[in-house]
């Protein structure tokens, strides 16, 4: 009798369990179905609208449609439409160029340019061994025409696109040297190495100067080599880093440089959409044991800002210059699409060592100094010896060296004084 009751009870429990499981499964499936149908309907509305436009235009448009260009603009429009000012759509060509820059190798003529007040493209860097350098082009030359295109009618993006191109192709440049002499040269585009820094120890100084143009996978090694080279040639007592106008690059690459210079501790974190915080990287105990100053300006952004604030928060040195740009959001590593194009969009807020965000506010220097109007206009003609902001950074770090020497002297004196 007891056995029979036990079997019936077991069957009842099994039926109840199956019923509950079925109900829960149905509810979850219905919820998933509702979400899926909602997504499908939303996508259908979007695709139908695009298809409606496409059908109308293809039936009536007078001109010819370049489908590749059309698809790129459609994708770029989607990324622009999500409202993320830091999101980017890269065409396949642009993404290949970006990968080259991140690896320190680019195909082109070998110059970095800015749009000058004259309207021409001013050469601010000409890389050693590049096609342009071999043709005699140097810093502070001007490019007035690229092929048949007048530079004054081009944007900086268009200029860079024309200077770069496929390996082995040629381009004709019309250039002006600093004396105003015009010449036409033909250069062949090819792969060239693109260092991310320059460095020097000014004559009579014991402070090294390192300018970082951008951060890529080679920057940490380049900085380490620069420091070792300067230490081998002089009794190096301090360092000045210049990240004015430095904005691009990957967070991993700037954090590698911070790790090289700074002692143990968290470098940066990411605040996620749900409010959680993820530590991105930490510095080990190895560091460069020298006082430092870092130069910034209004165009110092993102990686440049993280670099500057990190040196300050790790107690390595002072920030000198003017308020920075305040770009403190994190974009995902570009997601490659099937045709070789890519997208990148914001995934979090960048937090510094102390857990603070500089997004929208920037970094306030410890020592503020702005260039005068005429100095700003001739920024790229200034040198380490003539740039007043660099001079102020040298003063700041020299004061740090003197203060540390005085403290060391006082400690030594105290230690050698016999007890009463």
TrEMBL record:
Keyword Nuclease: no
Domain Tail specific protease: 180-370
UniProt keyword Protease, yes or no: yes
Protein name: S41 family peptidase
UniProt keyword list: Hydrolase, Membrane, Protease, Serine protease, Transmembrane, Transmembrane helix
Organism from which the protein derives: Ruthenibacterium intestinale
Chain ranges passing through the membrane: 7-33
Pfam family, one: Peptidase_S41
Source organism superkingdom: Bacteria
């Amino acid at each position: 009798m007891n056995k029979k009751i036990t079997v019936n009870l077991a069957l009842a429990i099994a039926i109840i369990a199956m019923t509950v499981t079925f109900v829960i499964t149905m509810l979850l499936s219905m919820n998933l179905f509702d979400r899926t149908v909602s997504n499908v309907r939303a996508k259908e509305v979007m695709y139908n609208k695009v298809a409606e436009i496409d059908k109308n235009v293809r039936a009536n448009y007078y001109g010819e449609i370049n489908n590749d260009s059309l698809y790129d603009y459609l994708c770029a429009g989607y990324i622009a439409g999500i409202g993320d000012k830091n999101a980017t759509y890269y065409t396949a060509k642009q993404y290949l160029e970006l990968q080259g820059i991140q690896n320190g190798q680019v195909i082109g003529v070998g110059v970095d340019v800015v749009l000058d007040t004259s309207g021409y493209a001013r050469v601010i860097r000409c890389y050693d061994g590049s096609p342009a350098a071999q043709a005699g082009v140097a810093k502070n030359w001007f490019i007035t025409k690229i092929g048949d295109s007048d530079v004054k009618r081009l944007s900086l993006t268009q200029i860079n696109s024309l200077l770069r191109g496929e390996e082995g192709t040629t381009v004709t440049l019309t250039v002006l040297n600093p004396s105003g002499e015009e010449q036409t040269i033909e250069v062949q585009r090819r792969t060239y190495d693109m260092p991310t820094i320059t460095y020097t120890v000014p004559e009579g100084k014991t402070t090294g100067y390192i300018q970082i143009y951008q951060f890529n996978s080679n920057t940490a090694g380049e900085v380490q080599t620069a420091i070792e080279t300067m230490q081998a040639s002089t009794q190096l007592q301090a360092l000045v880093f210049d990240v004015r106008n430095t904005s691009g690059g990957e967070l991993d690459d700037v954090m590698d440089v911070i790790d090289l210079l700074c002692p143990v501790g968290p470098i940066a974190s990411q605040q996620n959409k749900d409010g959680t915080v993820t530590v991105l990287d930490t510095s080990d105990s190895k560091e460069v044991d020298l006082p430092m100053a870092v130069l910034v300006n209004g165009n110092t952004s993102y990686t440049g800002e993280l670099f500057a604030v990190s040196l300050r928060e790790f107690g390595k040195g002072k920030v000198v210059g003017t308020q920075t740009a305040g770009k403190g959001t994190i974009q995902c590593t570009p997601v490659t699409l099937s045709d070789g194009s890519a997208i990148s969009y914001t995934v979090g807020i960048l937090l510094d060592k102390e857990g603070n965000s500089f997004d929208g506010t920037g970094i306030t220097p410890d020592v503020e100094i702005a260039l005068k109007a005429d100095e700003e206009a001739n920024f790229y003609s200034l040198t380490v010896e003539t740039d007043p902001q660099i001079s102020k950074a040298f003063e700041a770090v020299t004061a740090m060296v003197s203060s540390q020497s005085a403290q060391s002297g006082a400690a030594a004196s105290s230690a050698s004084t016999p007890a009463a």
